[in-house]
Design brief:
The protein is mostly helical and about 300 residues long. The protein has 2 domains: about 150 residues, Helix Hairpins (Orthogonal Bundle), CATH 1.10.287.70; about 150 residues, no CATH class. The chain contains 13 helices and 4 strands. The strands form 2 sheets. It has a two-stranded antiparallel ribbon with strand order 1-2. Strands 3-4 form a two-stranded antiparallel sheet. A hairpin with a 2-residue loop joins strand 3 and strand 4. Helix 2 packs antiparallel against helix 3, helix 4 runs antiparallel to helix 7 and helix 7 packs antiparallel against helix 9. The chain is elongated, with a radius of gyration of 27 Å.
Length: about 300
């Protein structure tokens, strides 16, 4: 009975980890697997609670630390769970299916964890060795899981940081075109020279492609949501606000006769449609994290402004 329960628990935990890795790394979805999703949300909510106990000027810097820590933390969680899953499988078979050194302290669960950890990391000291065919194949499978986990982690890390770099480049470009702020009128005026618009259509076309790429990156790599930039202008909501406001100004405030071609740019309509689509999907993609954070920021803002005025 002990063998059945321990083996079933180990296999169940192993299947859960495999599904979580598939849902998190391999499958293009706006959600993590059950392990990664709960861990990321839990860490973020804890960090956000702690951040609001700090002065406002330090909050963004503190939250900026969360994103880079989540991926190694998730990898560490996978490793710990994998070691425990295989240890549960090995544990009831230690006495009958393993050759154990005389210097080993016993045949308890600690020894199963020890052998599982050595096998997953492909170290192996030879003091505990499986001698039956089923346990040998399980050990080989665990070693393969360790190599696959490390390979997927490195690949995922490089992909995420590539997407983050693209996001920073797009945000910086809009920031400079908008007069180093979130001024939509300044963004449009940046391209107005001597009574004519120059390069505005190209800028809107580039912004459209960047926004589409960023939306797809956030769907494929949900951990990007938790990379909170220290500079607000690098955030996707700020970029979204700037571009939507620019579309609104172009369609409502520019002279309909002199700028009819500009108002009818396909890029303007496409950009507006993408921005609205992203706005509708944002809560589904990010959950309540960004919305609650924005609400809390607004709630705190009058108090902070009074304190700054007092200073």
């Amino acid at each position: 009975m002990k063998t059945i329960i321990s083996t079933a628990a180990g296999v169940g935990l192993l299947l859960l980890i495999i599904y979580d890795v598939y849902a998190t790394v391999l499958h293009s979805s706006a959600r993590y697997g059950p392990i990664g999703e709960r861990m990321n949300r839990g860490v973020w909510r804890l960090a956000r609670t702690l951040a609001f106990k700090l002065p406002r000027m330090h909050r963004h810097k503190f939250l900026n630390l969360v994103g880079p820590l989540l991926m190694p933390l998730l990898l560490l969680t996978y490793i710990v769970l994998l070691v425990n899953a295989f240890a549960l499988i090995y544990y009831p078979h230690l006495q009958s299916s393993f050759v154990i050194s005389r210097d080993a302290p016993g045949t308890g669960f600690a020894e199963a964890l020890y052998f599982s950890g050595l096998t997953l990391t492909t170290v192996g000291y030879g003091d505990i060795v499986p001698h039956t065919t089923p346990m040998r194949f399980v050990a080989v499978f665990e070693a393969a899981m360790g190599i696959i986990s490390i390979t997927l982690a490195i690949t995922y890390l490089l992909t995420v940081y590539g997407a983050l770099e693209h996001k920073r480049i797009a945000a910086l470009s809009l920031y400079h075109q908008a007069g180093e702020g979130a001024d939509a009128a300044g963004f449009i005026a940046h391209h107005y020279v001597e009574g004519k618009f120059y390069g505005l259509r190209s800028a809107l076309s580039t912004a459209t492609r960047d926004l589409q790429a960023l939306l797809e990156s956030h769907v494929e790599h949900p951990v990007i949501h938790y990379f909170h930039p220290s500079e607000v202008y690098k955030s996707l909501p700020r970029m979204l606000f700037l571009l939507l406001e620019s579309c609104s100004i172009i369609q409502t405030s520019l002279d309909s006769e002199e700028n009819s071609d500009l108002r009818n740019y396909p890029e303007v309509r496409t950009l507006e449609a993408i921005s609205i689509h992203l706005g509708y999907d944002w809560e589904e993609i990010t959950g309540d994290r960004d919305l609650d954070y924005a609400a809390d920021e607004e709630k705190e803002k009058p108090q902070d402004e009074r304190l700054e005025a007092g200073d």
